[in-house]
Amino acid sequence: MAQLDVREKLEILADAAKYDASCASSGTAKRDSAGASAGIGSTEGMGICHAYAPDGRCISLLKILLTNSCIFDCHYCINRKSSNVRRARFTAREVVDLTLAFYRRNYIEGLFLSSGIIRSSDYTMEQIVEVARSLREDHQFRGYIHLKTIPDADPALIAAAGRHADRISINIELPTAAGLRRLAPEKSDETIRDAMAGMRDAIEEGADARRRYRSAPRFAPAGQSTQMIVGADAANDRAIMATASGLYDRFGLRRVYYSAFSPIPDASAILPLRRPPLLREHRLYQSDWMMRFYGYRPAEVAEATDEQGMLPLDIDPKLAWALKAREHFPVDVNRAPRELLLRVPGLGVKAVDAILASRRWRRLSLADVGRLSRSIAKLRPFIVTSDWRPTALVDRIDLKARVAGQLELFG
Q: Which UniProt keywords apply (predicted)?
């Protein structure tokens, strides 16, 4: 590998990190060095990667790879062993110095660090952990740290990562075990899931210790997340949603991230020639929110798919489900419980909460609901108010055509 300066390495390894979508800092513990006798950084500031927390805050993170060299040859990866890309590698000290320099200039509020695998999984994991350890212990860095771990590394190393990082990511890679065997034969679905289970247990034990003893150290307070590639294998949206639901239930994940497959130079012949529509990735995120925040069961979200198990691209999955479950509509906004209001296409969580608060004092009319939502025209087929009833509108054959293109999942 040619000798490169830090600026050249940063250019290569920041660009290589763009394929990792699981970059967010929501849910972390609050730490601040203001007023402290020692320490630098904070997890609460406003900010070279822009992520967004659930409350809408824009969070700037230094998002880089430790190295884009790798001993594995996963077909879908731009950094695979056989790929003809320019290689670079940071030392642990260089990553630490970069993070501190960027933070002092107010460019970032934390670090997102991933890596290709060099020498061995354990050696690479040691280098990743050393970055986090040095930031925390040598420099008293109190900003956000998100580490991408290597599933088949020694569990003690993964546990050490959890002691220093706010969030841990262990990528599931592909939606199905069959897809992983075909496209990444050197990786094991069982090993990945075992690592997730170990991290779940460690996070739960750490949380329990914190409840019992206030002085107990925090362990990955922002939890763990994962990422799966969409469109590299034959898995349909129904299978992807089933995998995501299982991961949430079994491992208590904070987030599942979806990354649309992107064709890479000199790609293997077994990969698709074209990337899937980016709208497919968007629809999967919407279905994910339906399960996490709108109270839909996985089987209900699956009802929004077509005969091939794919979510429609022309309408959002919440509307697609409503059109197939018309027996649940119209919903009386003055009487319906929160869980039913959340299923009305075009009503988001904030609008539903506003309706619930307002109807304590008066019966809501169509105009009242219109003031609490984006557009009453989008809601008319699905709601009943004090002065409006859609009659047979919800049963119209052309209802999809009347509302398609107008509704947004979150209202």
A: Iron, Iron-sulfur, Metal-binding, S-adenosyl-L-methionine
Nearest to 387 by CA among 364, 370, 371: 364
Cross-strand bridge partners of residue 228: 173, 258
CB 138 within 8 A of CB 98: no
Write out pLDDT tens, residues 339-383. 999 999 989 999 999 999 999 999 999 999 989 888 787 788 899
Closest CA to 134 of 95, 88, 89: 95
Q: Are strands 167-169 and 144-148 parallel, antiparallel or unpaired?
A: parallel
The CATH number that domain 6-226 falls under is: 3.20.20
d(CA 165, CA 239): 31
Label residue 41 left, alpha or beta by phi (over 0 means left) and psi (-120 to 50 means alpha). left
Summarised one tens digit per residue, pLDDT across range 159-174 is: 999 999 999 999 999 9
pLDDT of residue 263: 78
pTM over 0.70: yes
Between 209 and 407, whose confidence is greater?
A: 209
> What is the residue extent of each domain of the chain?
6-226, 317-403
What CA–CA distances, in Å, run from 111 to 43, 50, 141?
11, 12, 11
Neighbours of 371 (CB within 10 A): 11
Vertex 348: Cα angle to 343 and 353 (nearest 5): 95
In this structure, the number of other CB atoms found within 10 A of the CB of residue 63 comes to 22
Q: Residue 129 CB: number of other CB atoms within 10 A?
A: 24
Helix (H) or strand (E) holding 38: none
